[in-house]
TrEMBL record:
Residue numbers binding GTP: 49-51, 68, 70, 127
Domain of life of the native organism: Archaea
Annotated metabolic or biological route of this protein: Cofactor biosynthesis; coenzyme A biosynthesis
Organism: Halorubrum aidingense JCM 13560
Identification of the protein by name: GTP-dependent dephospho-CoA kinase
Top-rank EC class of the record's enzyme: transferase
Length: 192
């Protein structure tokens, strides 16, 4: 449905938030973003196997996790693969080619975010661009966490400002952006 043009590859390599290797610090920051009165039930969305594994190991099962069995285009190690395979969360299998966002992935993300129980979206292909629609679809106060190759984890606090930045990048992708918003269950102007 949407693909990343070669001309934007460098832009998409820039982290959308702070990079950390400290999972406990990341979770403390996510709790602060949610706030007890602002959005105590705001979800944490994890994009990537290693990020999902580290959050689970730190005692926080992501509300939505997108995994593809790879890290930096190589198979994840057996410890991570086994731990994620053992998770008893509901699973939604989708196909999503590299450097793209498929209708299937966008619809699964929307469905997973509406589930009260944790959901793992198992991607055949690649989930690297999924942070953008996750930021667009998640409620204010949520956190989207993804891996920054060779550096650590990036946590994006979902706010009107981060949603605007994600929307600009999302709309720079090639393809039918309007249909992508429809599949995601989002209106383009950012209203809920």
């Amino acid at each position: 449905m949407l693909t990343l043009p070669n001309s934007l590859r460098d832009t998409f390599k820039q982290p959308l938030g702070p990079v950390t290797t400290d999972t406990d610090e990341l979770l403390a920051d996510a709790a602060e973003t949610r706030g007890e009165r602002v959005a105590p039930d705001a979800p944490i969305i994890a994009v990537g196997d290693v990020v999902t594994y580290h959050l689970r190991e730190a005692g926080r099962v992501p509300d939505v996790a997108l995994i593809d069995g790879k890290t930096e285009r190589e198979a994840v190690d057996t410890e991570i693969e086994s731990a994620l395979a053992a998770a008893d969360d509901r699973r939604i299998p989708v196909e999503n080619p590299a450097a793209s966002l498929s209708t299937e992935l966008l619809e699964a993300l929307s469905e997973a975010l509406s589930d009260v129980d944790p959901v793992i979206i198992e991607v055949t292909g690649e989930e690297d661009l999924a942070a953008l629609p996750a930021i667009l679809a998640a409620p204010d106060g949520a956190s989207v966490v993804y891996g920054q190759p060779g550096e650590g984890m990036v946590r994006v606090a979902v706010t009107p400002e981060s949603r605007t930045e994600a929307r600009e990048l999302f709309e720079a992708l090639e393809g039918d952006v309007e249909a992508a918003y429809k599949a995601l269950g989002r209106v383009p102007d950012g209203d809920r």
